[in-house]
Amino acid sequence: MKLNLDRLNDVNNKSMDLHKAELDLLSQKLDKKCINAEEVIKDISTLQVATPSWALGTGATRFGRFPGGGEPATLEEKVGDVGILKQLSGQTSSISLHIPWDIPENAEDIKDLASSYGLTFDSMNSNTFMDDPRGANTPNGLSYKYGSMCNTIEGVRDQAIQHNIDVIEYGKRLGSNSLTVWLADGSNYPGQANFRRQFENVQDCLQKIYKEMPEDWFMFTEHKPFEPNFYSTVNADWGSNLLLAKGTGERCMCLVDLGHHLPNTNIEQVVSRVIMEKRLAGFHFNDSKYSDDDLTVGSLKPYQLFLIFNELVEYLKGDEKQENELAWMIDASHNTKDPMEDLLQSFDAIALAYGQALTIPRTALNEAQLNNDVAGGQEILQDAYRTDVRPLVREARMRQGAAYDPVAAYRALQVRKQLIDARGTRVAVTGL
Ligand code: PSV
Ligand code: MN
């Protein structure tokens, strides 16, 4: 389904007078700090965040699921939903697939369909953290119950390697250029496994998969300290992740999922360290109060998100570059919200944090730091964080033909109702 853009323009036009006045005032304010609003708008427009194929339906906890209507039941419908998100936000132009949740049986057709919406395929996610009921990720018929690449049984490790190679093959046909590997591997009880043996097994498997990647592909490994294993995970933290990346190859990078850190971890410093080592893959954005809550980006800790973007802007505006383009993706789940509304809120939060970080006067911040001006450095950051940059984000969106306020437009255009009319109230969303 494609939206009628004339109606979108009508909705946008209602806010145009106020928008112009706010944008003008903000541009003047930024000018005083020697920040060019035009440049910030352009930078915001170029930040495109991938939508994960598993986020388009209502998520669940182990206590149940409360689906809404009109959810996508096929990969084709999921691609259509991302097309709508692109039209409304202007901030997403790619889709990230999880295999075997979303197997592109006719990869070339799916690629063509996506390109008719202006979409491409982002990183391919393999899955050896569960046994697919159809056996789609267990080609040798062996279980991942006691881990995949860490497993003591060679046949299970070979099967996990083969699954990842299969995922790379799908990705090649879709035009992707990276493989994301998140492993549940670890142990639930002390004594269950040998830490070192598990790590070495995983390292060995990653090296074998790496050799099968095309030369222009990148591998992203994603760390997580717990869940579904609760005593230990093999790739538990950024240090383990960096060791694995370095032990695998030059094009193996560390992915940072914002929900995969123990409470109070200084994530912005983790980001700085990984950038220093030129190994940052990019992000799985989400937010959390407790752990891997997978909530809307910026809904709980927007200041932390801003501080992470402060590190990113320092990198993006600096001279020392990594080989890879950073990968931006949302990894969230929506239990009580319309998934599309939730995703629109997340795109907005990412653009806002980026916009705020772009308005930090970096020379002044650097001087404050060199002079040990503690309060001064804090003032500079907080001033940027407390600046309402929404007019810049709205302008960036509208210049791409998208919405002034995406959630309001989604409601005004009755998108969910149209989807329910077209698809019914069925709940057979795949991949959850
Ligand atoms: C695991 O918690 C994770 O963050 C990984 O990225 C998975 O691929 C994704 O969530 C979906 O389960
Ligand atoms: Mn993730």
Report what the structure shows:
This protein is of the alpha/beta class. Helices cover 47% and strands 10% of the residues. The protein has 16 helices and 13 strands. It has helices at residues 5-13, 16-32, 37-46, 75-89, 107-116, 154-174, 195-212, 238-248, 267-276, 302-316, 339-358, 362-370, 374-385, 390-399, 406-412, 415-423; strands at residues 51-52, 60-61, 64-65, 94-96, 120-121, 124-125, 178-182, 186-187, 218-222, 232-233, 252-257, 280-285, 327-330. A six-stranded parallel beta sheet has the order 6-7-9-11-12-13. A three-stranded parallel beta sheet has the order 1-4-5, covered by helices on one side. Strands 2-3 form a two-stranded antiparallel sheet. Helix 9 links the parallel strand 11 and strand 12. Helix 9 (267-276) runs parallel beside helix 10. The model has no long low-confidence stretch (mean pLDDT 96). The structure holds alpha-D-psicofuranose and manganese (II) ion. Manganese (II) ion (MN) is lined by residues 182, 222, 257, 284, 331. The site of alpha-D-psicofuranose (PSV) has 9 residues, from loops.
What key phrases describe this protein's structure?
alpha/beta, 432 residues, globular, binds manganese (II) ion, six-stranded parallel β-sheet
Strand order of the largest sheet: 6-7-9-11-12-13
Number of strands: 13
Biggest sheet architecture: 6 strands, parallel
Overall 3D shape: globular
Kindly report the average pLDDT value. 96
Secondary structural class: alpha/beta
From the alpha-carbon coordinates, what is the Rg to the nearest angstrom? Answer: 22 Å
Bound molecules: alpha-D-psicofuranose, manganese (II) ion
Task: Give, in order, the helices and strands.
Answer: HHHEEEHEHEEHEEHEEHEHEHEHHHHHH
